[in-house]
Amino acid sequence: RSKPEQVEVGKKTPDVYVTPQVVLEVRAMNIDNSQDFACSVDGKTAYSLRIAYVRGIREDKVSQQATTTKFVAEYYRQQR
Length: 80
Known about the structure:
3-stranded antiparallel β-sheet, 5 strands
């Protein structure tokens, strides 16, 4: 699949793009500021979930209701 128009890519270009079919509920120990395996709001500051694990599938949600990178960035600022 080619890059979707609404996706911003930072320094690393993904090998593959996917269209989400399910929403997963994920828990993590905390959010790190990291450049490896991370998402970014501005292409400079990147965030990753530390020791993340899947709690379950959210059949009551659609992919458009998933948590955004912007929300993850705000949550990171609040945890400090």
